[in-house]
Design brief:
With 443 residues, this protein is of the alpha/beta class. The protein is built from 18 helices and 13 strands. The protein is globular and about 70 Å long.
């Protein structure tokens, strides 16, 4: 299918960084006694684990090549990757997230310019490059925003004094707030617990806010200042808008703000699936879980995250293509070849195409997937926004975040603010001041 969003990395010149003892002990003994080699994929996405396990078994049965898939628990991928790469039987295939992440794992990435995934890219500028080296190939294009329940919104629109006549009327923060406030006031009449699902700050959920939601104020600041490379410092220009959408999530919610520390991703998914909330901040990857919980495809849509930015009526969804496959350069030649052969099969064989597009519900940047029509309603919403010509909100700024610690500190400050044990100035400090602190530490 035609994509209109590019996450062009281009020819990135990145200074080498030493990762000390990890590079010294990692993975040099990972060859297989089998001349065919073997594949070990450390998967980043827990929600795709079952599909990857099934696909690996299918490939092994067909070719006789061993394929192991291990999936890191939510929010533990960096630690798990570090641990696994230090082992003798290290992953031969893993994921890196953007230019900053590449600085950490550079020594483990081999050139992928001869691989089928790179050859199949519709836009090869999307690849993560270091000089002539193709260090990573993006394998998924994802979008996120506010998933909404069409049936509940229709029920709301039918109430006396409804603030909108159609879901299309919601194209700015003021309208979104008016609707959410009214839904919250009419929650008993509508049979819901809140306009928004719980804003959980358990580790299975907090990434939606300290990472995904935080991308938006970064995006608009970077857009205004034409920032295309990681900056040493930021201003926090759009923190007031960030605050008002976060406040709305907390106020018009299924739970009191004092309970958000223990609310999980599963809680939010369940609340939405059970019709207890109208809006749910998440992305295209959430569909398998929602579908598994009984949600019907024609009952859901997705709209942008409006937070009060000028001109946001022309805003699209947040679009991400900074998730890259990388092949372990320290694996044996046999294992590298086996991994490349496996990836070729994944992106060209119908079994792989069906698994990624249907079972995993992912949208890819590969030419071999062009005839695939996704049955994921959230992907369909993404395509509709792209076809409309609206301005997609690139998640490239998230890939420039100087460290995981920046997100963790921001998340802690947001939680304290949500619970009433901290104020917004601490969020601002974590957002702005800690960016420079973490940037300086990594440079």
């Amino acid at each position: 299918m035609k994509r209109t969003v590019k996450a062009a990395i281009g020819m990135v010149a990145i200074a080498a960084m030493s990762i000390g003892t990890l590079a010294a002990c990692g993975g040099s003994d990972s060859g297989s006694d089998n001349a065919k080699g073997k594949v070990y994929y450390l998967n980043y996405k827990p929600e795709t684990n079952d599909a990857w396990q099934a696909l690996a078994k299918k490939y092994t049965k067909q070719t006789g090549v061993e394929v192991k898939v291990q999936t890191a628990a939510s929010e533990t991928y960096p630690q798990t990757l570090k641990s696994e790469l230090a082992k003798s039987n290290a992953p031969t295939l893993f994921q890196i997230n953007g230019v900053v992440d590449y600085q950490t794992w550079k020594a483990y990435t081999t050139d992928m310019s001869d691989t089928e995934p790179y050859k199949q890219l519709k836009d090869q500028s999307m690849a993560l490059k270091d000089g002539d080296k193709v260090a990573g190939v993006p394998y998924v294009v994802e979008s996120y925003g506010l998933i909404y329940n069409k049936d509940l919104l229709a029920k709301y629109i039918a109430t006396d004094g409804a603030k909108i006549k159609s879901v299309d009327d919601i194209d700015n923060f003021d309208t979104l707030k008016a609707v959410a406030d009214d839904i919250q006031a009419k929650k008993d009449q509508l049979g819901v617990k809140g306009a928004f699902t719980s804003t959980g700050f358990d580790s299975s959920s907090d990434w939606r806010f300290k990472g995904h939601l935080a991308n938006n104020p970064l995006y608009f600041e970077f857009r205004d200042n034409n920032i295309t490379e990681q900056p040493a410092s930021i201003k926090g220009t759009y923190l007031p808008q960030f605050k008002q959408i976060f406040d709305l999530y907390l106020k018009d919610s299924t739970c009191p703000r004092t309970q958000v520390s223990s609310k999980t991703g599963d809680d939010a998914n369940s609340e939405f699936a059970l019709g207890q909330a109208v809006f749910y901040q998440n992305g295209t990857w959430a569909w398998p879980d929602l579908q598994g919980a009984g949600v019907k495809a024609d009952s859901v849509g997705m709209m942008p995250i409006y937070m009060g930015v000028k001109g946001e009526e022309n805003q699209g969804l947040d679009v991400n293509s900074d998730a890259y496959w990388s092949i372990n350069d320290k694996a044996s030649d046999a294992d590298k070849k086996a991994t490349k052969d496996f990836l070729k099969w994944v992106v060209t064989d119908q079994a792989g195409i069906d698994s990624i597009s249907k079972d995993m519900g992912l949208t890819t940047p590969f030419k071999s997937f062009e005839k695939v029509k996704s049955d994921n309603p959230l992907v369909q919403a993404e395509i509709a926004y792209q076809d409309s010509g609206k301005e997609a909100v690139s998640t490239r700024p998230t890939a420039m975040i100087p460290s995981e610690e920046w997100k963790n500190q921001l998340g802690s400050a947001m939680l304290e603010y949500a619970q009433g044990t901290g104020d917004w100035s601490a969020v601002k400090k974590a957002f702005v001041d800690n960016w420079k602190t973490e940037y300086d530490a990594s440079h």
